[in-house]
Amino acid sequence: MLRPFLHVVRPSDWTGKLAEATIFIAGTLVLFPVLLVRLPPRWLEVVHGQGWILRAGMLIVGLWLLQWMRAWLLARLPLAPYLVWNTLVFPDRGQQRRIKVADIADLYLELRPTGQTQVFMVLVHDGTHHELCPVDWPGAGDLFRLLTRRLERRQRRDARK
After folding, report:
1. How many CB atoms lie within 10 A of CB 38?
2. Greatest alpha-carbon span in the chain
3. For a Cys-Cys bond, which of 36, 67, 82, 130 suits 8, CB 3.0-4.6 Å?
């Protein structure tokens, strides 16, 4: 929804659930009045008395702003990996690590020793391996697909040279 440069994975812990609940409550408090507010007569003249057009427009703009607020809020969570422009940001040993997409050599799945959880891993050109997030977190598959597409595009471009 017009958010091409910020892709966030929501952690499946209490912080992610609290952030989603916060956005839901904020959305309800902001968007519900759109349906109840009395529209100014001059605005109604512009749309020839069709108030539903104005309400639909305000609702679309409000939802768009909520999507941005959600992405920004989730990106602030300590465990949330995200891709902004061409930089992948993810937690690594208690700190945020930033890697350019051009520095990524490979993406792959790894099964954790417990045997229960698969995680997305990143291999950097310097030979280090880093854990991004578990596969079952909301948005993890989308981030993996996006990174895979960008890596494939870069490989095709390098092969042409």
Report:
1. 6
2. 66
3. 82
